[in-house]
Write a structure and sequence with these properties.
The chain has 227 residues and is of the alpha+beta class. It has 7 helices and 5 strands, in the order H-E-E-H-E-E-E-H-H-H-H-H. A hairpin with a 7-residue loop joins strand 1 and strand 2. It is elongated, with a radius of gyration of 25 Å.
């Protein structure tokens, strides 16, 4: 008879943390692709520790499956390591396929380890399947305007300046936008990119555009009222 006595009593906050990881796992699996098996363990009940999985069929695991001896071993190593770092290692599947694996601790209240995120890469997956995830023709890749690029700035001032320069260059060269509406369109595009979530960004943008902060606020208010 299976003993369902909890291994670890989780608080409401602990459970919320694990639920947030569970929501992330399918999306992470979609991003990484078919070669990756992702198993999320809760340490509340070791007899039914798997609470979310992607490609669990590789190892024959589904939600509700028990924890493995290797996962317990990795947990012990992490708990005895003062850095509490994740562990990366080479492993093998039941059929002998080499795996590149990682066990990542999940911390809850009071810095307790409440779960484990285990990731296995199956090295026998066809390379063509791996490359498919990098193709713009993949049905899982959403098309993005070629003008949009991620800016890796060293600080928020640089981020604002870079985004503004990029948007300004595009809008100023757009002949379909009248001269009197250029600044408004620049502000609206910055708004859509979330730039105004940054503290003091309105003042920074106003200064760089040579307009008043009230004008920037006016454009934002008008946009919000339309939405």
């Amino acid at each position: 008879m299976t003993n369902d006595k909890p291994y670890l009593v989780l608080t409401a906050a602990d459970k919320a943390i694990l639920e947030s990881y569970a929501a992330m796992v399918p999306n992470l699996g979609e991003y990484l692709g078919d070669g990756y098996e992702i198993i999320l363990h809760s340490l509340e009940n070791l007899h039914h520790s798997v609470i979310e999985n992607v490609n669990g069929h590789y190892s024959g695991r589904a939600n509700g499956a028990p924890i493995t001896d290797l996962a317990l071993s990795m947990l012990s190593k992490i708990e005895h390591d003062k850095s509490h770092a994740n562990i990366c290692y080479m492993n093998r599947s039941k059929s002998g396929v080499p795996l590149r694996s990682s066990t990542i601790p999940i911390f809850g209240e009071h810095k307790r380890i409440i779960g484990l995120l285990c990731i296995n890469f199956y090295t026998d997956i066809p390379f063509s399947s791996v490359l498919k995830k990098f193709s713009f023709d993949s049905p899982t890749i959403q098309s993005i305007s070629p003008e949009i690029r991620e800016n890796f700035a060293e600080n928020t001032d640089e981020l604002i300046e870079t985004a503004l320069a990029e948007i300004k260059n595009t809008i100023m060269n757009d002949l379909s936008i009248s001269s009197q509406n250029k600044n408004k369109e620049i502000v609206l595009e910055l708004y859509h990119r979330g730039i105004f979530n940054i503290k003091d960004s309105v003042l920074k943008v106003a200064s760089l555009l040579g307009i008043s902060k009230n004008t920037v606020y006016m454009h934002i208010r008008n946009l919000k009222s339309k939405e």
